[in-house]
Amino acid sequence: MNWKDIKEAIMSVLGVLLLIYVGIIVVLYLAQRQILYYPIGINKAPEGVSLLSAIDTQNRGYSPEGWFIPPTDVHKGVILHFHGNAGNVASRYAAFLPLLATGYGALFAEYSGYNGNQGKPSKDNIIADADGYIQKLFELGYEAKDIVIYGESLGSGPASYVATKYDVPTLVLQVPYDSIAAVAKKKYPFIIGLDYLLKDNFDNVEYLANYKGRSLFLLAERDNVIPTIHGETLYNSVSEPKLLHIFKGAGHNDIYETDYLQRVYDFIEKQ
After folding, report:
1. Would you state the CATH architecture of domain 40-191+200-269?
2. Taking a C-beta distance cutoff of 8 angstroms, is the pair 228, 186 a contact?
3. What is the pTM of this model?
4. Cα–Cα separations (whole angstroms), residue 96 to 3, 70, 119, 122, 260
5. What percent of the chain has pLDDT over 70?
6. Fewest beta carbons less than 10 Å away: which of 65, 94, 152, 261?
7. Does residue 192 register a pLDDT over 90?
8. For residues 165 and 147, what is the distance between their CA atoms, to the nearest angstrom?
9. Secondary structure letter of residue 203 according to DSSP
10. What are phi and psi of 108, to 5 degrees?
11. Domain boundaries in the chain?
12. Which residues lie below 8 Å from residue 198, measured CB to CB, with a gap of 6+?
């Protein structure tokens, strides 16, 4: 085989590899929202839980419904909870029952396209949902000081956004990220220009740049979904007062098996 044949063979291989690479990029681009959002199951609200419709702040023609439990103690506030990317509000409600038993109320915000809600999950829709839920709480007579914003995983995005926008003084973030783009770059380092390809980049560093309240960060040491470094980066970017706890040996979803609710309760009780 002469040099010309070798050169042609190399170019052919490179051409095939380029086509494969472009194909992977196209598939990931088209499927990114299916990768990011997992709306699983439709659950009816249990007895004692009301359906609460978010205000349609963007005139989308629909209002997603969350699960609402008013406080049973007049001295306690309401936790506005934004869950992660998988499942729906039902599992989060069940996990929070011990905290609700202390007298706190909660609005478990359900996203567009989740648990039977109209619309499709996207950054724009989820941010609009978040605006609508907190404005609904204001409409019911709650003030920012009466509300605790709680964001879990993906939900740390809308949580960080509303906490800053509405000057809510207490914020709890469970396994949060600095930005979706930063996490994606670590997971897909071979993708060139990912910033331009990403449709839904929740940027928590940007959202919390001007946050003046107090924040609690709950991170998992062995988190392979959102590696701990992303939560630490966000924590380091946020102003005091703030508190960080890393659960040793825990993975992304293992925090539910720890004493995290006691830590949340202790934090929000210290006004």
Report:
1. 3-Layer(aba) Sandwich (3.40)
2. no
3. 0.92
4. 69, 14, 27, 26, 10
5. 91
6. 94
7. no
8. 13
9. B
10. -85, 100
11. 1-36, 40-191+200-269
12. 32, 180, 181, 184
